[in-house]
Amino acid sequence: MKQDQALRLMKTEVRQDDLTNGNVSLDQSETATYIADVTLQLRNLAKKADLKFLVYLLEMSFQEAFSRAQKEKTDR
Description:
Layout: H1 3-11, H2 16-21, H3 28-48, H4 52-75
């Protein structure tokens, strides 16, 4: 993912009522890619700190986000 895309996603303020009312249109592939990137970094931090269960949870989150990002790219 390009750095400017990641920064745009990070800076996007999404209010809960906007999500509920469907007023937000986020690109699913970009969002899933960003989440995969962040969870991978967090997983690596947890691994260095020997936080085994947290590593497991973050790895599962990474796998799901990565899988969704790949699926969205192939569906286009």
